[in-house]
Fold each of these.
Amino acid sequence: MTEREPVPIEDILPRILQDYSDEPRGWRILSTPIGDMLVFGPTSSFQLKLIPLGPQKYTGAGVEITESKKTLKRISRTPEFGLRPLSSGDITDLIQAFDDPQTSSLKIQSILSRTPQSHSDLAESDVDHILSGPILTRPDFGSLDPEILKRQLLLDRSASDVFRRRYPMRSGMYF
């Protein structure tokens, strides 16, 4: 997979999940309301275009990227994404904290400061609740870097092609 060749999202998501499982620290995820995503990990980064097929199912296209240091530096200041286990007490504290914004903020900070865990670590532990995120949402990625905007246009076309090829009857309703 090269930066210039988008691949179907179904081929790139397993790689992202494996990379996260190998090292759950240092991930940052940004999204837009129209399905564009930037996924920055400690050793690999990706730009994606997702087309929703259902609540937890997507198709689309993505590319692995090597981003400019300026863009990475800006994004590295955002909160770290991760899967964090929550106890029943955490849930109770959060619900009670909604009445007091200051307490709520402190509780959320406390949870986000916990070390993110991999899928396999969570599966092996006895966890009832998991906090996933944060995923920051922006209106668009155009202001981050001109290269991101160029790739976004390429991924829009590639995702539409994948959607039409894999789901011809469904895509006919939209295109």
Amino acid sequence: MRTWSGRVRSVVSDPFERFAAQCELRVTVEPISLVPRDVLAPPADADEYFLVTLTGHRPEAGSIRLVVVMPPSTKIRTPTARDALWWLAADAWAIERSEADMKRWADTYEYALGSTATERLFERQVQQTSILRALLCKEHYQRLLELYEREVSASRKNTRTVDENGG
């Protein structure tokens, strides 16, 4: 069983990786098996699953655990701090934008309001956002959300430019 654990180095070009290093976040990545699975599918075509744990320098703040799925087409075969932080920021950003109102949050994704699955996911993301806020402290938490928003805005801008230029 491979496990990678460590502090993220600060000499990296990715803004999420730099953020993790600046905030002294510890990322632990452990490959896990998924069951049930299609035992007849070729292993080269199978997704890989990892348990990613993110902790800060204050143990009392707790940790966040995610299962990250890596499709076989992914060149990088192990999740990074960026993978975890991007998704955590995306979920927290949606909770913050909806002001933790389930109807507004569900409308964002066009999820069925009143569905127990929608309610479970919402509650899980509210709890995850609360832990992320405690893990990062207020100023770092806001920086992470701003980092996410800048990246998504830049991506939208690039997509519009390609569309406008007929690409």
Amino acid sequence: MNINKILPISFCFLFLFVTVTILNLNYSRKRGYGYEVTDNEILSTNISCIPEIIRSYERIKHIYGKNNTLFFRYVNNTCSSCIDSQLTEILTLQEEIGKDYIWIFPAYPDDRNSKIQLSNELAKYNYMNIPASLLLIPIVNDEPQSYFAYMNGEGEISMVFVPDRDKVQYTRQYLLEVKKLLVKVN
């Protein structure tokens, strides 16, 4: 074959390949497969007890008043590697925006060993051990679920997010959205 015929055909195939690849990447980002997820679908969750979570924060609202604050809630028998991963993500956010806007609410027994454990594990964070009877811990498939909640300047919980251990990028995107809110209002 003549090189003059092969060259234009090769360019056509190359152009077609690049076009299909770009379209595929754009589609996958919109559907939430990449790290640049922009849809608000990640800020919602399939946990049905979100209204109960929000009502349970009414019991502790007097402690925090009307501050813009991110809360992270978990129980002591939750997957420890999952909690460690989420705490690492929170620490990264905390280094960027400051410690004052983030609180960790574990639900551990009120005994000496738990207090020592919490003071060691959460020394870098603002935290308060709050019993599950005072602040709800959702149970899904017989497992307690950790979650994030954002309290806006009006003292209302405006965003609840339940992280998924298989989709860390959603947690990162949620924390990025919270960071934007906190930077904007403070």
Amino acid sequence: MLKLKELTDSWNSMMLSPRKTANEYAKRKDLGFMDGLENFGTPVLMTYLPLMLLALALSGHLKPDYLAVVLFSLGATTFGIFVVSFSFTFMAYEVAKKLGGTAELGRLYYMVSLAAAPTFVFTVVINIAVILLKSIMKVMAFPLAATSTMQLAGDVVAVSVTLYGFYLLTLSINALYGLRWKKSVAIWLAPTLVLMAAGALLFMTVLLDLLKFLVKTL
């Protein structure tokens, strides 16, 4: 297990010097599944909980019953991240094997987490900054257009960080397997498309069930 300072140092170096960092950690065979799990879980505890508490404080709902909901949401989010990250990595691992990759599943899980963790942290930090700035602008009676522009700018930065995260993921996979770039992209693109399709299918199923319920009640 890496210490907290080692974790945060790895996130910073991954964002600033991704190729060098990916190559360095890909050679460390002592890092595996549990290290990846820690890499996924720590950012959630460091950023998600403060973000939710900040949102409650600004909305005036910082009360015990709301805190219970936040803790439940935190647990559900943590579990969901584990399920999605493991499912993604397992599918990526199977694709990698078919493309000639030989690294173990645990090491791939860690390398995926090395790219995902700093991306998650930066995205949440951006969201916190946008929430604070919008609150300040509201108190100072800024025009609605200015607030909307601030939100749009935050969304653009968040999307840019997410796209950069896919670049980090490509570097991580490439450093671990030593495959060509096209194969490295295919390793993460295939499970991404599968999970997106599964999410869309789930959304459509829920939407259809809701429409059926509404039709019966009308």
